[in-house]
Specification:
Blueprint: E1 3-5, H1 20-24, E2 28-30, E3 35-39, H2 45-54, E4 58-62, H3 66-75, E5 79-80, H4 84-90, E6 93-96, H5 101-109, E7 127-130, H6 136-147, E8 152-155, E9 158-159, H7 161-167, E10 170-175, H8 183-190, E11 193-200, H9 204-231, H10 237-245, H11 252-262, H12 273-290, H13 295-311, H14 320-326
Parallel strand pairs: 3-4, 3-6, 4-5, 6-7, 7-8, 10-11
Antiparallel strand pairs: 1-2, 9-10
Helix pairs in contact: 2-7, 5-6, 9-11, 9-12, 9-13, 9-14, 10-11, 12-13
The structure holds nicotinamide-adenine-dinucleotide (NAD).
Residues 39-45, 63-65, 68, 97-100, 103, 106-107, 132-133, 158-159, 161-162, 270-271, 275 line the site of nicotinamide-adenine-dinucleotide.
Length: 327
């Protein structure tokens, strides 16, 4: 049976970090002994939780739509938790894969006195890994609330979209407290991704993810605008994508989104425009927080905000092209 190390039930030193002797003494346990709670079985989370099960972990799943969790346990396996509290009590590691950091906060802290929530039910020594694309400021707020309950927060957002979530080959950006023993966490993340890159302290993974997605969004905007102007000069969209795809204008959208989803009119990448707009908005919040001069981030956020207003909450991100053409 494959094995991994358990670094969660760590001993604390006066400085608040696990002692070296404890870290050295981390016992090796079977993966199936490690219980993982997975919250958010959407386009990405469904495949990620599936890969955790395939890797041999015991997985408890929860979704705001109970029928989704039930369907997952029937079709894929694992245990459908009836509440967040039940999931927390059963889990050593809890993973959130939710629309945004505000939803993660609501799930962890609750929204009213008697709400179902994780806090108050998580085991002391548990780890909560937020793999959603959240705002780094939200993660830092959550970190202190969880620390008081003896729970460590890590941020580990992902890139690679649905096909790589399914294949278990996501790129994972890992923010963690300095000195935190990451062996077990990396083994868990390794079931969902083939590249786990440490980015720095808690929140740095989320900051990296927002900036990555700003670059992805502006790439799609740039190609959409180029095609609109090219048409005025008699260039067809297909010719332009063929040429940009083998030229210096190549980017992720040109290579992967235009050929199938835009020119092929499928518009179903599995990544909602609203989520990408949210990510660019996070990048804009980061700019505002640090009072940085980043005009393209602000402009991209503004344009994607307008596109979201025009196209609605369920539009696919590839439909940004329709917005660009309509302007
Ligand atoms: P999605 O909308 O398909 O799934 C979200 C899931 O969360 C749904 O099943 C929904 O029912 C559930 N949910 C919502 N509120 C909840 C709550 N309060 N409690 C429990 N469950 C709740 O979204 P997705 O595309 O899977 O994306 C999830 C996260 O991953 C987002 O932060 C997104 O920005 C990020 N992301 C998405 C992609 C992609 O290609 N789709 C790629 C990388 C990162």
């Amino acid at each position: 049976m494959s094995r991994c190390t358990a670094g969660f039930r760590r001993r604390w030193t006066a400085s608040g970090w696990p002692s070296r002797s404890w870290r050295n003494a981390q016992r090796v346990i079977a993966m199936s002994e490690l219980s993982i709670g997975f919250i958010g079985l959407g386009n990405m989370g469904w495949h990620m939780a599936t890969n955790l099960l395939r890797a041999g972990y015991s997985v408890h799943v929860y979704d705001a739509l109970p029928e989704t969790a039930q369907r997952f346990s029937q079709q894929v396996g694992g245990h459908a938790a009836s509440s967040l509290a039940q999931l927390a009590e059963a889990s050593d590691v809890v993973i959130t894969m939710l629309p945004n950091g505000k939803v993660v906060q609501a799930v962890v802290l609750g929204t009213g006195e008697n709400d179902d929530r994780l806090l108050g039910h998580l085991k002391r020594g548990a780890v909560l890994i937020d793999m959603s694309s959240s705002d780094p400021s939200d993660s830092q707020h959550l970190q202190s609330a969880l620390a008081q309950a003896g729970v460590t927060l890590l941020d580990a957002p992902v890139s690679g979209a649905v096909p790589r979530a399914e294949a278990g080959t996501l790129t994972i950006m890992l923010g963690a407290p300095q000195g935190y023993a990451l062996d077990t966490v990396k083994a868990v993340l390794g079931a969902m991704g083939n590249s786990v890159i440490e980015t720095g302290p808690v929140g740095s993974g989320h900051a990296m993810k927002a900036l990555n997605n700003y670059v992805a969004a502006i790439g799609l905007s740039a190609a959409s605008e180029a095609i609109k102007v090219g048409a005025l000069f008699g260039l067809s969209a297909k010719t332009m994508i063929d040429i940009m795809g083998t030229s210096t204008g190549k980017n992720f959208a040109v290579e992967h989104i235009f050929p199938v989803h835009i020119l092929g009119e499928q518009f179903n990448t599995g990544f909602k425009l609203a989520l990408l707009e949210k990510d660019v908005g996070i990048a804009r919040n980061m700019v505002e927080l640090k009072q940085a001069n980043a005009p393209f981030i602000n402009l991209t956020s503004q344009e994607w905000g307008r596109a979201r207003q025009q196209l609605g909450e369920v539009a696919d991100n590839s439909e940004y092209f329709k917005y660009a053409q309509s302007q």
